[in-house]
């Protein structure tokens, strides 16, 4: 008698899962999500996802006791989950409960430390792949919460929940924190017209500086400055102003007043530079000044600052602007909005 083959078991042994998770930009209120501030004063910001992605591939190795990790320029082969050198993958696996017989590899459309929330996208993508492997459906909000728990509680980073939530959800959204626990308690889709979205995509230009920076270092310096009596009021007042500006940006986008939005980026950048000496540099200031001279209404370095990608709002003479940016050493990167958030694009399990 021919033995019946259990196809389900076979596919399980040969599982291949690939997740695609977008990176993010901040349109207003960025930085007010950091927990040391938002727990005490509340936070309000607007984030959007773009079509630059982190891809996570999960496979099952032949050796079921082996854990194989490939991330960036590093690779590791271990038998114990606690020996995984990548802290994010290690904590994601421990949280979900997959501790052996797994292979995880990653690739991204933008380099690490670009200021585009890549680590948050990486965490969410890994969690999404692991839960898919377990056949355990998890909502985007839950993925965002668990990714925040890993990076802030388990890894102790001085950040906020902005990245993890928006890359899980996708689109353009307004967030608030209004509680002493620092938990996101308001998530709203912005009532923005298709015409305004189209104009935003057309007028927002992105450029890679080539400067790699550590967001945690910048945010930690900001926190330490806020703890000094001599600087405390300046930092807290700056974040108050950024939060208020974020709430105004929500109105500008809903009303389609994109010139006001563009100018708000300049106001935000000038305030942001007061938060930490690591936010900018003489080179970054030079690039920004030249961009403003060349027709930008406003712009800023993405993320905490110090390097990564620039975003500028340029309503006119874009070709002239692009030529000037190339002349001074900035590399343009074309972007559009992503509306789906993290998702599984291949599931053979």
What does this structure look like?
By secondary structure, the chain is an alpha+beta fold. It folds into two domains: 7-191 and 338-348, Ribosomal Protein S5, domain 2, CATH 3.30.230.10; 194-337, GHMP kinase, C-terminal domain (Alpha-Beta Plaits), CATH 3.30.70. The chain is 43% helix and 23% strand. Strands 1, 2, 3, 4, 5, 6, 7, 12 and 13 form a nine-stranded mixed β-sheet that branches. A four-stranded antiparallel β-sheet has the order 9-10-8-11. Strand 3 (67-71) and strand 4 form a beta hairpin. Helix 3 (87-96) packs parallel to helix 4, helix 8 (215-227) packs across helix 9 (229-255) and helix 9 packs antiparallel against helix 10. Residues 1-12 have low confidence and may be disordered.
Outline the fold blueprint.
Blueprint: H1 7-13, E1 16-28, H2 35-41, E2 43-59, E3 67-71, E4 74-78, H3 87-96, E5 102-108, H4 118-133, H5 140-154, H6 162-169, E6 172-177, E7 186-189, H7 194-203, E8 204-208, H8 215-227, H9 229-255, H10 258-272, H11 282-293, E9 298-301, E10 309-313, H12 318-327, E11 331-333, E12 337-338, E13 343-348
Parallel strand pairs: 3-5
Antiparallel strand pairs: 1-2, 1-13, 2-5, 2-6, 2-12, 3-4, 6-7, 8-10, 8-11, 9-10
Helix pairs in contact: 3-4, 3-5, 4-5, 4-6, 5-6, 8-9, 9-10
Beta-strand portion reads: 15-25%
Residues in helix, %: 40-55%
Number of helices: 12
What's the β-strand tally? Answer: 13
Domain module tally: 2
Shape: globular
Write the CATH architecture name of the largest domain. Answer: 2-Layer Sandwich
Mean pLDDT: 89
Could you name the CATH class of the largest domain?
A: Alpha Beta
Helix/strand-derived class?
Answer: alpha+beta
Unreliable spans:
1-12
Distance N to C terminus: 28 Å
Return the string of H and E elements.
HEHEEEHEHHHEEHEHHHHEEHEEE
Q: What can be said about the biggest beta sheet? A: 9 strands, mixed
CATH topology of the largest domain: Ribosomal Protein S5, domain 2
Q: What gyration radius follows from the Cα positions, in whole Å?
A: 21 Å
């Amino acid at each position: 008698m021919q033995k019946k083959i259990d196809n389900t078991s076979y596919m399980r042994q040969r599982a291949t899962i690939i997740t695609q998770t977008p990176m993010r930009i901040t349109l207003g209120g960025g930085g007010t999500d950091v927990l040391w501030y938002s727990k005490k004063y509340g936070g309000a910001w607007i984030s959007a996802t773009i079509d630059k992605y982190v891809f996570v591939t999960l496979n099952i190795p032949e050796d079921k006791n082996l854990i194989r990790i490939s991330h960036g320029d590093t690779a590791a082969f271990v038998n114990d989950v606690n020996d995984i050198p990548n802290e994010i993958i290690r904590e994601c696996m421990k949280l979900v409960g997959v501790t052996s017989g797994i292979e995880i590899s990653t690739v991204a459309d933008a380099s690490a430390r670009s200021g585009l929330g890549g680590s948050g996208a990486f965490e969410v993508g890994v969690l999404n792949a692991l839960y898919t492997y377990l056949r355990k459906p998890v909502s985007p909000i839950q993925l965002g919460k668990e990714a925040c728990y890993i990076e802030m509680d388990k890894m102790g980073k001085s950040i906020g929940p902005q990245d993890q939530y928006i890359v899980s959800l996708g689109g353009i959204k307004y967030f608030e924190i209004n509680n002493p626990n620092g938990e996101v308690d308001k998530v709203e889709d912005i009532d923005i017209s298709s015409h305004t979205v189209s104009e935003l995509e057309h007028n927002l230009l992105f450029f890679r500086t080539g400067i790699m920076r550590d967001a945690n270092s910048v945010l930690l310096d900001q926190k330490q400055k806020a703890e000094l009596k001599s600087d405390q009021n300046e930092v807290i007042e700056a974040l108050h102003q950024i939060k208020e500006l974020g709430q105004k940006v929500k109105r500008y986008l809903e009303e389609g007043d994109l010139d006001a939005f563009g100018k708000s980026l300049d106001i935000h950048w000038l305030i942001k530079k007061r938060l930490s000496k690591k936010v900018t540099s003489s080179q970054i200031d030079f690039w920004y000044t030249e961009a403003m001279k060349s027709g930008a209404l406003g712009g800023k370095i993405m993320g905490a600052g110090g390097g990564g990608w620039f975003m500028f709002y340029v309503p006119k003479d874009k070709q002239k602007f692009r030529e000037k940016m190339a002349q001074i050493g900035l590399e343009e990167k074309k972007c559009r909005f992503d509306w789906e958030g993290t998702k599984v694009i291949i599931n053979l399990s």
